[in-house]
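Private note to self, pasted from the team thread so I don't lose it. Backbone tokens:
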């Protein structure tokens, strides 16, 4: 490439849109999907479904995995097989995508929102212990909420942004009071917690493979567990609870939550690339940390000594006073430069969709949601484009004093 061509390419790159996080298709996806099409095995039965289940179970470190149509259905079924009953209460992270909270309501149960901790932005295990020890009482071998009288039956820690929740304190109190722990491990695929994979720490774990996740099947989800009875029950419920292989007899209400073979084929090809995808995510995080170091008012993601984050969605906190503008203002400045960013989710205890649930003040999650901004971090993000993002943020920081 000569100098003129290089300059032209650089000029074009400087005007191209940089997305937040998009799928990366670079392995055997075409080959595996073509096999499904050529053989006609495109629906909910086929060898790729079982293969995908084995691959995810191996990654999670569990004995069993059950594929589902999406992550929300995985959460819904996990709640049911864990024994969560209508009118129970389930402790859940408030700083999360809304899916786990919706799934609690699908099961007829009620969420109890737990604040985030300020260092790694995960479910605050101290808040979990405090609620259980001070707001609940042990009556007739059941944990009951003192204020509502409802049975508390489960905890859903949501590992957000690629970093695990500190699980040990949660698991200890869960065992003490016979609470089931259902991990939403979607954003932490490929990370580790004290040497274990998220999804294998609690009683049952769930994953989503939506388009912006570290691997994708377009849609799709997975349930993982070491309990054979739960895995069999999950498979039964996700396949319409059909009791006979030939006759259409159904013992209870089931769900059409099956993953198709053609999507599982994509998942198998994606799982083959997981290690390289995780390495790229960590490389992107390292370049952001170096490039944005020393800018007043910006706080980067942290990694605990007991965890290995994938940095699935690289996120910073923007202090409006020190940086000179808030996160939404920075979002708009970057948007004008064709750089896509996004805030975190509205904490679910503030969501109009869940106003009926009782909640206390959860200030850490609210503060994080106000100040957080996720930056472009696709697996295919080039160094040139990442440098452009860093330069745009530095320029915004410089402009605050003009």
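Design output:
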């Amino acid at each position: 490439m000569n100098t003129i061509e290089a300059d032209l390419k650089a000029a074009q790159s400087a005007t191209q849109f940089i997305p937040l996080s998009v799928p990366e298709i670079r392995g055997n996806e075409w080959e595996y999907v073509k096999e499904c099409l050529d053989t006609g095995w495109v629906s909910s039965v086929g060898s790729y479904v079982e293969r995908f289940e084995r691959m995810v179970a191996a990654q999670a470190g569990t004995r069993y995995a059950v594929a589902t149509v999406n992550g929300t259905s995985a959460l819904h079924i996990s709640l049911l097989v864990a024994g969560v009953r209508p009118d129970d209460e389930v402790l859940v992270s408030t700083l999360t995508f809304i899916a786990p909270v919706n799934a609690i309501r699908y099961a007829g149960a009620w969420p109890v929102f737990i604040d985030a901790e300020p260092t790694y932005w995960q479910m605050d295990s101290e808040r979990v212990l405090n609620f259980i020890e001070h707001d609940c009482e042990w009556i007739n071998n059941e944990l009951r909420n003192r204020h509502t009288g409802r049975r508390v039956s489960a905890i859903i820690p949501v590992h957000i942004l690629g970093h695990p929740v500190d699980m040990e304190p949660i698991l200890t109190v869960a065992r003490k009071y016979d609470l089931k722990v259902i991990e939403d491990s979607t954003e932490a695929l490929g990370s580790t917690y004290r040497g274990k994979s998220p999804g294998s720490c609690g009683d049952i774990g769930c994953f989503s493979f939506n388009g912006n996740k570290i691997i994708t099947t377009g849609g799709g989800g997975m349930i993982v567990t070491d309990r054979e009875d739960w895995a069999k029950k999950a498979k039964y419920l996700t396949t319409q609870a059909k009791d006979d292989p030939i006759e259409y007899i159904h013992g209870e209400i089931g769900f059409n939550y099956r993953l198709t073979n053609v999507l599982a084929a994509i998942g198998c090809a994606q799982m083959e690339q997981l290690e390289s995808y995780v390495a790229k995510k960590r490389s992107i995080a390292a370049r952001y940390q170096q490039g944005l170091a020393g800018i007043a008012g910006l706080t980067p993601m942290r990694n605990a000594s007991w965890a290995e984050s994938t940095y699935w969605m690289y996120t910073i906190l923007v202090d409006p006073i020190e940086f000179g503008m808030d996160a939404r203002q920075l979002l708009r400045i970057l948007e004008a430069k064709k750089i896509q960013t996004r805030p975190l989710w509205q904490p679910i205890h503030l969501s109009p969709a869940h106003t009926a649930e009782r909640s206390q003040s959860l200030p850490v999650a609210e503060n994080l949601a106000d100040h957080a901004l996720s930056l472009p971090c696709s697996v295919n993000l080039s160094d040139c484009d990442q440098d452009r993002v860093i330069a745009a943020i530095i320029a915004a920081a410089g402009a605050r004093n003009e």
